[in-house]
């Protein structure tokens, strides 16, 4: 099966949580495996949360664009925001130094996503961050 989903959400944590339901339905309707659906949602939640928390200096009123695709080449998730430039692919992240429960903040979620997905690409286009992930 295949499918495509596009939506926007406001830069609030409430919108991140609420819009996750779109991806859950997309996963089911596109015939994704349980693992693909889980990884799609986890990746979305991590990237979207980081955008809301860090890209806008607390400014409200921004929109984040999301595109999810399932086609013959795989499962893809793209997030686009007009916040400060940030490349999650090359960002230097702290090394875990012990109990993961104590390391849960400060880049550990992004580290986990980078290790679990097939590929992650970043470009800055016309003052927009564009992150494309292949699940």
Counting DSSP E segments of at least 2 residues, the number of strands comes to: 5
Count of separate DSSP helical elements: 3
**In angstroms, what is the radius of gyration?**
15 Å
**Strand percentage, roughly?**
25-35%
Biggest sheet statistics = 5 strands, antiparallel
Please identify the structural class as seen in this structure.
alpha+beta
Question: pLDDT average, as an integer?
Answer: 91
N-C termini distance: 16 Å
Q: Could you give the order of the helices and strands?
A: EHHEEHEE
Strands ordered across the widest β-sheet:
1-2-3-5-4
Q: State the helical fraction.
A: 25-40%
Can you give me a brief rundown of this structure?
With 135 residues, the chain is α+β, with helices and mostly antiparallel strands. The chain is built from three helices and five strands.
């Amino acid at each position: 099966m295949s499918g495509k989903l596009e939506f926007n959400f406001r830069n609030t944590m409430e919108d991140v949580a609420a819009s996750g339901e779109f991806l859950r339905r997309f996963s089911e309707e596109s015939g994704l495996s349980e693992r693909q659906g889980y990884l799609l949602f986890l990746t979305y939640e991590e990237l979207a949360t980081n955008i809301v928390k860090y890209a806008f200096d607390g400014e409200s009123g921004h929109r984040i664009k999301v595109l999810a695709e399932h086609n013959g080449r795989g499962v893809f998730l793209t997030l686009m925001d007009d916040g400060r430039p940030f490349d999650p692919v090359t960002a230097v992240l702290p090394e875990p130094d012990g109990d993961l429960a104590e390391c849960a903040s400060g880049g550990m979620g992004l580290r986990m996503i980078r290790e679990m997905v097939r590929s992650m690409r970043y470009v800055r286009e016309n003052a927009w961050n564009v992150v494309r992930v292949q699940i």
